[in-house]
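Write out the 3D structure for:
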Amino acid sequence: MSVLKEIKSPIKLEMDLFESKFKDSLKSNVSLLDRIMHYIIKRKGKQMRPMFVFLSAKLFGKFEENTYRSASMIELLHTATLVHDDVIDEANFRRGVFSINALWKNKIAVLVGDFLLSRGLLLAVKNKDYDLLEIMSTAVQDMSEGELLQIEKARGLDITEEVYFDIIRQKTATLIAACCASGANSVGQGKDVVEQMRLFGEKAGIAFQIKDDLFDYTQNPIIGKPTGIDIREQKITLPLIFTLNTVEKKLKKYIINIVKNYNKTDAKVEEVISLVKQNGGLEYAEEMMNNYHNDALEILANFKDNDAKKSLQLLLNYVVNRKK
């Protein structure tokens, strides 16, 4: 059995039912929108976020109708941010297939993102899920602020480690935190437990993002070498921050000059990757990732043992051990 199948096993029936409920939440009276929604459903990924919602509910031995609404709202919100991100990044592909903006242009892609976001908000309002609405609205606010903070800091290439963690907490971790908080909230858990689960998701989300940042410096099986995409896009991530804080002043200026002025030159990008590796940037980032992973496991240890808890532990391990 694959790791993901094993993780899903306590919630397999719920995940299967969720598929049809999520499809229903995307229906519209506009045929263009329906065509685009069909395209979105066809290319969905691993659905890790709904898994976090369902397992966080099942951890408490229950499952309610609004657990499905929580997962649908998360998935609508997440999909909206992906569509908007592709417009912002001028990306023509996502997971190897054409992005919405590549096929239908930016104007339609922005409107599709807005439609998905409003669908998610309406789902909560119509069912009077006001706690869920607060959890989700906070996540949208955090994600927007995180993205803008990254853009602001990238201009001066002056991202400190503290700012880096602020950015990834808001940009990535806040949505996984919302998954876990809304899962616990959907089955009637009190504020203290919901906050514990939110914190668990935040730690898991930070570990997830550091792992993503490490992929940029590790071997890509298709091209046989690291991609260096973050460096090319002048994104300063943890391995590079550690290196800039560690090397002597002259070398630091040299690296910053490459990232500023030679970030499109393959040989120079590879040189930065080598310098990060030589100066312990990857080991440091891995150590920090493992710290957040362990913090999340410690929070989970406070809850009683069951199949959902085991799956959440497996999902955490998957986050830091995945190959892509």
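The mean pLDDT is 85.
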